[in-house]
Design a protein that fits this description.
Elements: H1 2-10, E1 34-38, E2 44-50, H2 59-68, H3 70-131, H4 135-151, H5 157-169, H6 171-181, H7 186-196, E3 206-210, H8 223-236, E4 240-246, E5 257-261, E6 266-270, E7 273-284, E8 287-294, H9 312-329, E9 336-340, H10 347-355, E10 364-369, E11 377-378, H11 390-393, E12 408-409, H12 410-416, E13 420-424, H13 430-436, H14 442-447, E14 452-455, H15 482-495, E15 505-511, H16 518-530, E16 534-540, H17 544-557, E17 562-566, H18 570-579, E18 582-585, H19 594-601, E19 605-608, H20 614-618, H21 628-637
Parallel strand pairs: 3-4, 3-9, 4-8, 9-10, 10-13, 13-14, 15-16, 15-18, 16-17, 18-19
Antiparallel strand pairs: 1-2, 5-7, 6-7, 7-8, 11-12
Length: 643
Amino acid sequence: MLMATLINTVIPSSPPRFSFQTTTPNSKFVKVPALRCLRKNGEINGLSRTPSPMDPGDQDDGEMSLEQSPNVELEMKNNEIWQLFKEAQQNILYLNKQRLKAVEELKEAKREKQLLVDKIEQLEKENRRAGGKDNLALCWELLLRIDSIVLGGIISNSEASDLRRMVMDSKVSVADLVLDMLQKKDAELLADLRHFSEGSKKKGFHIIHICTEMEPLVSIGPLAPYITGLSRALQRKGHLVEVILPKYASLDLDEVQGLREIEAESYSYFNGRLHGNRIWTGVVYGIGVTFIQPLYFSSFFSRDRIYDYPDDFERFTYFSRVSLDYIAKSGKQPDVLHLHNWETAIVGPLFWDIFAKQGLGNTRILLTCHGFDSQCLEEPEKLAICGLDPDRLHRPDRLQDTAKTHLVNILKGGIVYSNKVVVMSAMHSKGRIIRSMSHGLEPTLALHKGKLLVAPCGFDNSIWDPAVDKFLPVNYSRENMRGKDACKVALQQQAGLSEHASSILVGCIISEVSDFDLEKLKAVVWNATKGGAQFVFMGNVAVPTIDRALRSFQEELEDLNVKFFYGYDEAQSHLMFAGSDIILCQSFHDPLLQVPLMALKYGAAPVSETFSDKNFRYSADHDHEITRFSQFMRSTFGNMSLS
């Protein structure tokens, strides 16, 4: 008790003796009424004037007594003063104790409050990951457990297929039992499933995506949102959709529910040997996801970037082969294997030459191409590393490249060996794509024109919708746009820009697939900022050369009206579209059309700054098979520019 120590050092332990020097022998003492410390209950503890025991009834007698007894009076006064100090000390100590007690109680209350807040956050997190699961997510965890059981050799592939179909067809009623089922061991779970199985007719397709991106786990280009959006849309229509991905070291696993490793050996053929893999499963947005993690070739997917390595053919061919081995060994019998771009196009030849005979004869192959500019040309001998026959496939009607005949074309092989091929384009017709945008694949596309489909680019409306967007401070819609002003202010605050409603705010997202001419873009930004425009750039670039160029671009441009953010942040990306008046787009061409589409959805004007493509904006397209959306984009936004 610090206060008590200080008081004790000041106040003596015994009453002090006071003496007064009298200058006149006949001087008289003046009566001083005694002071007492009185509490509210009447106890002596406060300051109060009380009658002195020396007060006489007769004043003359009192004066005589004081004159006769000066020492007694002094002694009594000293005692009274000492009593006052003593009681004051006790009061101070009492108040100090109460203060310290109150401080401790306040600290304890704060600790209890923090514990309560932490508990609430933990419960909310558990609710999002467990209690917040919908029926589909729960059923997917059950389906992935069935995969684990069949890989462990407990049941046959045929029974596993029947159980999967039962779960798919009865997912609503099964979901009521899933939470209890998932806590049981494999044998008990299997018994419950067999008991529950009632048999039902097929109600939807079973579709498996074999791909290299999926939002929000790993997102580089338009493929990632396409996979997630399409999967969710198909599942809403009653189909069962799952995704197989490489287990990149850079995966964002925050949104994965029930992530677990399958405790079974998984081997796959590659380069003349069998190699082990770790298989992980989880659920993302109600979609079952399987992750492939190589053991011997662990460096394949533990790198900084996803693409653009010299051994990309080996990396993604290994992944494609392991995916097929996993599907076959787990007893899955999907209706459709959906492949994407050249990275998994090799699945087509692998499937028909090797795996179709392993109980997958009823499965069909669908290949989606987001563009033909990247095709992967390799030496024919390299096909042997995944078990394919180079001599059989290095032929003009199969994988042989049309221009460089000594090489094989992996994307061409995917086209040839697929039952259907989808080309993503909202701006161009099938004829225009084959004639002008095939990058040397025109003969192959023309030959297989009958299985070629053109689909518009799109995105998941359940995620990208300002009316329900969970990342926006205020939601808004086409009917009521007032919330967009609040989003603009929020973006300006986040970027540290001045909050002027009259300032035009321009947003721009630059990724690895972007191809902006930074020098010309710099001139556009300088010119626009002179007129009061504000710019917010988001750079999501893992390629070192592009990243360095972008940072140099930032150093030359950044001022009070230009701000940069690095790294992809989903919440920030949504706010970028909602808060911007204009979204600067690389192009209105595919496959980058998702950016202007999202801009339109969020009430921002898409402006194309494809400096090398002025003809797109100012001249007519003589292709009579032009799409309606293309006509709309060209007529409405084709002549808009920041230049």
